[in-house]
Amino acid sequence: MAEYPANDFTIRPIGRVESPLASTADAPRQGDEGAPEAYLILNSDVLAGLEGIAVGDVIIVLTWLHQADRSILRVHPRDDLSRSEQGVFNTRSSSRPNPIGLHRVRVLGIDGLRVRVSDLEAIDGTPIVDLKPVLGSIEER
Amino acid sequence: MAEYPANDFTIRPIGRVESPLASTADAPRQGDEGAPEAYLILNSDVLAGLEGIAVGDVIIVLTWLHQADRSILRVHPRDDLSRSEQGVFNTRSSSRPNPIGLHRVRVLGIDGLRVRVSDLEAIDGTPIVDLKPVLGSIEER
Question: How large is the ipTM?
Fold first, then answer.
């Protein structure tokens, strides 16, 4: 059976995370499991893209989990060996073919290219790929 | 000020969308604004990653919006010229430096590498980058 032509695409990071979390061993599994405040350090060439983001907003940060193993397709959820292996697409494991992290955070402060956010489990130096607003109800869009 | 070294990363799609939506002109702006059912056609080499996904699950599909203009940093929200321009990171516009789409859908059927889903506004042929479960409460993880 013919497969879709395997066109690849290039991610060019728009910034990086600055965090007290030095390694994944220090990091909680999800942002709401005790993750610290952190800074999003954006590149100067994307400054115009931040316009309209305000303190108090809840946003989705997309990262590239640069330490992930992209060859893994099955994992024990939360590294718990008592749980049966699952396909990575049924887990939030960082191990997956395209290791994009999704992080829901609140904006605590904005100073030019430095955005302070709550509850980010990504480690120091993690490349940032995109920022998106959380969608409100249809009437609010 | 020194910028983060611009390491790029390569997205290798894991499949593509099969949809009655032939072009973005036909597509609603968001999945919950009248988007049709569609199929996720996964590549055979990621089959093991699907294990555990079941009919009825709500999942997040990440796509690469391959027709997007990556050079745009400011847009009128929803192409409504009566609204002031915003930074793309404060909108869900497909125009953005790394055009990754986030789509929340329900799994309606699974047949090997073909996954039928609800409410997908991505057009026919859109590359699929990742699938993730929606996170439940902390107790359910």
Answer: 0.91
